[in-house]
Automatic annotation (TrEMBL):
Transmembrane spans: none
PANTHER family found in the cross-reference section: F-BOX DOMAIN-CONTAINING PROTEIN (PTHR32278), F-BOX PROTEIN PP2-B1 (PTHR32278:SF143)
Name listed for the protein in its UniProt record: F-box domain-containing protein
Superkingdom field: Eukaryota
Cross-referenced InterPro entries: F-box-like_dom_sf, PP2-like
Pfam families assigned to the protein according to its UniProt record, in alphabetical order: PP2 (PF14299)
Organism the protein comes from: Glycine max
């Protein structure tokens, strides 16, 4: 018996143990297209608990997967951003970002006396005219994270007339409350990447939307 002779449901079950790339390749075949594009297959490529943060929709699981993969999806009144990372195997990644409570989430223009006009989804921003210490800290409840999922913590920001970051590296730290933390020194000002002080440090990259990410 050839594979294409199996019932569609059986083929879909087999494909659910492969990868999104494999399913897309088989979907070009008339014999496998229906099974390869079925919700049975693509439901396995989505996060196991995606229904907890994605409202019910008539959209196929195939379309939903690529929608979440292409761009971050803002939800929960702007407090969360979810995106699936395309990659080999089933290494799907979710990036939930809790905006509040955060301390010191600031878009700033030091010394100009002008209000910050940079586009942002935050309802409140602040401007620092003089600063000797700049600190951002926040937390997320690990119960909201999905099991068997790889997570990455990133800082996404914009700078307007940056000042002071050329004196010392910036310290970034991620950890579990009451446990170990991972700390690294980075350079937040991309204009300083050729400065001898920061040549060995990671610098932010410019995203397609114009924001910086590290």
């Amino acid at each position: 018996m050839e594979l294409q002779d199996l019932p569609e449901g059986c083929i879909a079950k087999i494909l659910s143990y492969t990868t999104p790339v494999d399913a897309c390749r088989l979907s070009v075949s008339i014999a496998f297209r229906s099974a390869a594009e079925s919700d049975t297959v693509w439901d396995c490529f989505l996060l196991s608990d995606f229904t907890s943060f994605i409202p019910p929709s008539s959209t196929s699981k195939n379309d939903l997967y690529f929608t979440l993969s292409d761009l971050p999806t803002i939800m929960d009144q702007g407090r969360k951003s979810v995106q699936l990372a395309k990659g080999p195997g089933r290494s799907v990644t979710c990036f939930p970002l809790e905006i509040w409570p955060l301390y010191g989430v600031i878009l700033f223009d030091i010394g100009s006396g002008q209000a910050c006009q940079s586009p942002t989804r935050f309802q409140e921003v602040a401007m620092l005219r003089a600063v000797c210490w700049f600190d951002i800290s926040g937390s997320i409840n690990t119960l909201t994270l999905s099991s068997n999922t790889h997570y990455s913590a990133s800082l996404v920001f914009k700078m307007i007339n940056p000042s002071g970051f050329h004196y010392h590296p910036t310290v970034l730290s991620v950890g579990i409350f009451g446990g170990n933390s991972n700390t690294k020194y980075v350079c937040l000002d991309p204009n300083l990447k050729d400065n001898h002080r920061f040549q060995e440090l990671q610098c932010p990259k410019v995203r397609s939307d114009g924001w910086l990410e590290i």
